[in-house]
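Response to reviewer comment R2.3. The reviewers asked that we include at least one raw input/output pair. We reproduce the pair for Abasic site processing protein here without editing.
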Amino acid sequence: MCGRYTFEFTARSLAAAFGMVPPGFAIRSGYNIAPGQYIVIVRPERDQRVADVAFWGLIPGWVKDPNAFSKPINARAETLEEKPTFRGAFKRKRCLVPASGFYEWKAEGKAKQPFYIHPAEPGAPFAFAGLMEDWHGPNGEVMVSACIITTEPNGLMAGIHHRMPVILPREAWPLWLDSAAQTRELAPLLVPYPAERMAAHPVSLAVGDVRNDGPELILPDRT
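Raw output as returned:
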């Protein structure tokens, strides 16, 4: 799964990285972004890309009571067209989730060691393949939500965890965000990211507590 990640962008750097105008809302860096929080996504709007804010935990439009729904944070690439929760969003509501890196925990006996995984190229962003939905409430309220698609691990991630987020290379962004694209065209994108374009190192156990949020969390663990 992908359950924690980092977001080290300003409005200007986000716009430059994803080829769009700067968002019209406040951008704040986060070093321990967790499910149930509001996250920044990039979605299509007419012939351009725009930034938006979404709740991390997908709520399909057909849900009657969001409080009684499980709100999945991840969707398995292998079953997107089989699961009613994800089927509609995969066909017509795709987005990118900008990230600077993400965390995963490696089981070591009875303990779990957190690792920070990030682009091998300094300053380069990750763009997770995401799904989004707009839930409309009975009183006219609208809630935008999103989840991150996962796939099998690449060579780097296989030594840490059995899943990893789908990370889309820049050249795949236009197709992923194209509302006219067919799912058969999109399926080849949902593969492990090249291991040589990623790096990983162990970090402090402090990242396990969502109340901790600071740049020290991504520093290599020297213990």
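The longest strand covers residues 126-136. The chain is about 10% helix and 35% strand. Further pairs are available on request from the corresponding author.
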